[in-house]
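Translate sequence into structure tokens.
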Amino acid sequence: MKRILLATDLTGLGDQDIPPMFRDVVERGWSVTAAGGRVLNGLRPAAPGSWADRLTEETTVNGRGMTDYDLPAAPHERTRLLVRRCLAYVCACLRTAEEVFGDTQVKAYVSLSFADTDEGLFTSNVTFCTPLPDVHPYIPRLEEVKGAAVGEISVEDCSMWSGR
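Result follows.
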């Protein structure tokens, strides 16, 4: 993931990089579930679910594949645009979480991998969760993940990309 981020021009990263559906999610903000899960209101199911633990609730409710159907197939251009979309969305959500919860505990996880389709296009997934001391990490041994580029992003990381 570090290599991809270093190779991507993130100049001017902002809300204009976020697809409309995800911009709506950012605008609807965050809330806390009965179990204490921090979830995005725009992704929260109408009926409460049953979860093994708070981490599972947060990653399931908050996780989505990033819109990419409108992106070019050429790998270099596709990757650049997909990374910009993911990071702009992540940073907007993390800033909103900091405002709502008054802390920087929520982390974002972005994964980039090749889709299991005939075209084999680069695709991505984004989720958010709050690391908990009594629960295993969302992605144990993150640095050892194979077959995908995965990164954990904090609100502090966002300041270097957007200048805010």
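Note: The chain has a mean pLDDT of 90.
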